[in-house]
Amino acid sequence: MAAAPVWSVDPRTGKQRERVADEATAADVDAAVQAAHRALPALADRAARAAFLRAAAQRLEADGERLVAAADAESALGLPRLTGELGRTTGQLRAFADEVEDGGHLDVIIDRADPAHTPPRPDLRRYKLPIGVVAVYAASNFPLAFSVPGGDTASALAAGCPVVVKAHPDHPATSQLCAAALRAAAADTQLPEDVVSVVHGFEAGVELVRHPRVSAAGFTGSVKGGRALFDAAAARPRPIPFHGELGSLNPVVVTPAAAAERAEQIGEGLGGSMTLGTGQFCVKPGLVLVPEGADGDRLLAALSATLRATAPGHLLDDRMRDAFLAGTAGRAGLASVATPVAAGTGEDERTVRPGLFAVAAADLGAEHELLFEECFGPVTVAVRYAGETEAEAVLGRIEGSLTATVHLGADEAAAGGGGAARLVARLTALAGRVLVNGWPTGVAVAPAQHHGGPYPATTSTSTSVGATALERWLRPVVFQDTPEALLPPELRDANPLGLPRRVDGVREQPAADGAARGAAAG
Fold it and tell me: 144, 411, 419, 466: which has the highest count of C-beta atoms within 10 A?
């Protein structure tokens, strides 16, 4: 049987643009994984890895105009948004190159032998090694930053792991162009091109997570798809780590004091956040606790006006459009749920209009469970609450999220303690990133960033954004009473690679010139 073709489709028209590739067979997946496995030793050199990541950023920038045009044609996200996304993508590649050169990710710990210790302590030297070939499942809503050249790929390569990417069907042409850029960058830096490869097709994704030479996987997508792959990863004869970002409601709590002070500002800000990218951000605020009363009314009036003034937009594909329309219709049909702004199709029938649902906290019953599930697209649910008890009852029904936000009054924020502190602590239990007086859309690429949260936000405690994202692709190993000549260079007393490390409980940071020599040597 001939392999099924992979088509690039324009979401603005629904028409096929070009035939990009064929869906990968089991033999194709095996060939890609085996080639990646053979490339693993070549990534052991830290200097080569750092040079490769920087070369990849340069290649993507050099082809930026074509990449952005292709991504726009396949996603309808717009040239300004995608130009910024390209900058984010190349920026995180360079940031990971810096992390590789620093060497801190190796987490070197040395405890020298101490016979006087109780019990006597042998010589122990610990660091981290690449876990092996990593499977990456690209996201639909970020065709660059969370796709072939995105954070999962960049962090895995930085850790020293070759990557096989299962391209998302919404942007196959963009995926091919990005893969070509990364493979060319590998050749530029004398690395095997197979440190990165791409496969297409649903069955290819299943084959990939089951392949015995795949050692870990990263996924960004739906709860249903991610959970199926997570279960497959766990059911293998040799289970592997599966770092999945699945779904997130991203609750927002507005206190009465905040609503009294700046209801209109909060309403307008919420409208901008929930419609950014046509509501297709994984951190879109999907449920907002708004106090009952006149101040809350003013907030919702400002939000409604903002939504009505927002132009209809395209979703990433017809499947997502259909799911959005079905999801909003289902929510609108629930008892006691009002629709201040009705979501629906735009004038050209291929676009969607944003929507708003409102319900009293006191009216929420078991039949309203749908309101506590993510609806991908430009829609949110406002829950009107009266007092802390009702707010807590609503928060108690929310599952793990990537983010949780609170808007406080000026005195609440300045004073700290009391109800504000309790609320921040409560939201901390729900999410991996807690915001005060801000909006969750926009995830800064920074060393301290954490993009993850309790299940179903993610299937692990790790982050997919920020410097520590590469920790997902490392495994620790300790050497006990090993002669110096047999130790890896990273663990020798002289620290020939100039690595930051902790020795007998004391942190050591080598001089800058030593770190530079170490990166060049290691």
Answer: 144
Rounded Cα distance, 421 and 424, in Å: 5
First to last CA, the chain: 48
Active-site positions read: 245, 282
Alpha carbon 209 to chain centroid, angstroms:
19
Do the Cβ atoms of 167 and 200 come closer than 8 Å? yes
Tokens describing residue 189: 């830096």
In angstroms, rounded to a whole number, what is the distance separating the alpha carbons of residues 368 and 401?
19
Report the relative pairing of strands 163-166 and 196-199 from DSSP bridges: parallel
d(CA 319, CA 339): 24
Using CA atoms, how far apart are residues 501 and 488, in angstroms rounded to an integer? Answer: 14
- For 330-364, the pLDDT digits (tens) are 999 999 999 999 999 998 889 999 999 999 999 99
Question: CA–CA separation, 207 vs 457, rounded Å?
Answer: 24
Closest CA relative to residue 503, chosen from 34, 69, 8, 123: 123
Secondary structure class of 431 (helix, strand, coil)? strand
pLDDT (tens digit per residue) in 6-43:
999 999 999 999 999 999 999 999 999 999 999 999 99
Checking 490-498 for CB contacts under 8 A at 24+ apart, the result is 490/103, 490/106, 490/108, 490/127, 490/522, 491/108, 491/110, 491/125, 491/126, 491/127, 496/521, 497/46, 497/103, 497/521, 497/522, 498/103
Distance (Å, whole) CA 488 – CA 508: 18
